UniProtKB/TrEMBL annotation:
Keywords: Bacterial flagellum, Cell projection, Cilium, Flagellum. This is Flagellar hook protein FlgE. It comes from Lysobacter enzymogenes. Residues 166-185 are annotated as: Disordered. It is found in: Bacterial flagellum basal body. PROSITE patterns: FLAGELLA_BB_ROD. Its main location: other. The keyword Thylakoid does not apply. Residues 5-35 form the Flagellar basal body rod protein N-terminal domain. Residues 370-413 form the Flagellar basal-body/hook protein C-terminal domain.
Length: 419
């Protein structure tokens, strides 16, 4: 009967630990990336006894010694991917893990809310571990953005202009071209508010002014020449050149004007006004509609945010519209994640396992989602069902102890009665 009490006590102990596991699952219902643990119980060693002698002897079990809490089996079922406000909140749809660094050691996590610290290192907000990317050799690489907080300026090199340039003088008609009728006024067209950047990265607003030559060296009856000037906001000419047409087509090699721009601090750069895609039309019924189709160059910028693109690459966005791609975030996949060891904060240790192969998003370890986190995979209905079973097991073990105790008391009473 004393054995029964000890067996009952083992049941109380085991089910108490099982209750602790269930309680931990329920408590982490809203913990991002949390994985539930399923309690596992195992029976204790059975003693053995031999009956009979010689070859006819038999070995039989003499009875169990109780139960013990064996271990908690991790459930890596996919949690819901929920949208969040953080650009560096990361979640994985698939079996993989984020590879993190902690004091030179590699740790793993299913999800994370990352921030940039004062040293320019991307760290998980809770565990403070470093996010990593895939290096050129397939190994893990640190992310350092301290020198990438700003974007250098780039002076404008090309301004592409498209549309139609209208003229009342048709070079295809006799007596036109560069010898228009006497008294004809110069034809002019302007494109205002053309923005570009000088060598210092300062934005300047200019006007492109195009004026048809009325008197010029003969180019042929079917030719026309237009003067192009770049005017600053003070109506001063920055630079000028010319473009030429043959019939209604711009002359190859005479469709661009290169102008040298000097910034306020004396730095110079060259900008090319490209007219290769304009059409030359004639007659008063058609209006000029030239416009800037494309311009390059930009001013200095500061980091406005960081995100992960569709390929799993970490990208810095700058206020000047530019971006810098740092590399693809490293992910790992394990054949048997049950062998991982939980460390808290949703982090796992795999130091006892062979190093996994590191891959990027969509390369076998799942798809990485930016601005999202993986929710806990706790299922309350399942946990409450287990809770009832744990409670029944605890009650039954208590009843065994009570019954064994009553039987022992009854024996003592019988002995007292004999006395």
């Amino acid at each position: 009967m004393l054995d029964s009490i000890y067996i009952g006590m083992s049941g109380l102990t085991a089910h108490s630990k099982g209750l602790q596991t269930i309680s931990n699952n329920v408590a982490n219902l809203n913990t991002p990336g949390f994985k539930t643990t399923t309690p596992r119980f195992s029976d204790l060693y059975y003693g053995q006894r031999f009956f009979g002698q010689g070859p006819d002897s038999a070995r039989v079990a003499s009875g169990g010694s109780g139960v013990e809490y064996g271990y908690g089996a991790l459930n890596f079922k996919q949690g819901e991917i929920r949208r969040s406000d953080g650009q560096l909140d990361l979640g994985i749809d698939g079996p993989g893990f984020l590879a993190l660094l902690q004091d030179g050691k590699v740790r793993y996590a299913r999800t994370g809310q990352f921030v940039i610290d004062d040293d320019g290192i991307v760290r998980e907000k809770g565990s403070k571990m470093e996010l990593t990317t895939l290096g050129a050799d397939g190994k893990l690489a640190n992310i350092l953005i301290d020198k990438l907080r700003t974007s250098s300026a780039k002076p404008t090199a090309t301004v592409k202009i498209e549309g139609r340039l209208q003229s009342n003088v048709n070079p295809n008609q006799p007596g036109s071209g560069n010898n228009p009728p006497t008294g004809t006024a110069p034809e002019t067209f302007s494109i205002a508010n053309v923005e570009m950047y000088d060598a210092s990265g300062t934005k300047i607003v200019t006007t492109v002014k195009i004026t048809r030559d009325l008197i010029s060296p003969p180019l042929g009856n079917n030719s026309a020449r237009w003067q192009v000037a770049l005017i600053d906001k003070d109506n001063k000419t920055i630079g000028q050149g010319e473009i030429r047409f043959i019939n209604s087509t711009i002359e190859p090699g005479a469709d661009k004007v290169a102008i040298r721009v000097t910034s306020g601090n004396g730095m110079t750069s060259e900008v090319t006004l490209d007219f290769a895609n304009i059409a030359y039309v004639f007659g008063p019924t058609v209006n000029s509609d030239l416009k800037v189709a494309k311009t390059d160059g930009y001013g200095p910028g500061t980091m406005s945010g960081m995100r992960v693109d569709d390929t799993g690459a970490l990208v810095i966005d700058y206020s000047n519209g530019q971006k810098e791609t740092l590399g693809k975030i490293a992910m790992a996949d394990f054949a048997d994640p049950q062998r991982l060891i939980q460390l808290g904060d949703g982090v796992f240790d795999a130091s006892q396992l062979p190093d996994p192969a590191y891959v990027a998003s969509k390369q076998g370890a799942g798809t990485l989602s930016s601005g999202a986190i993986e929710a806990s995979n706790v299922d309350l209905s399942t946990e409450f069902g287990r809770l009832i079973l744990i409670q029944r097991g605890f009650q039954a073990s208590s009843q065994v102890i009570s019954t064994a105790n009553e039987m022992i008391m009854q024996l003592f009473q019988m002995k007292s009665g004999q006395g």
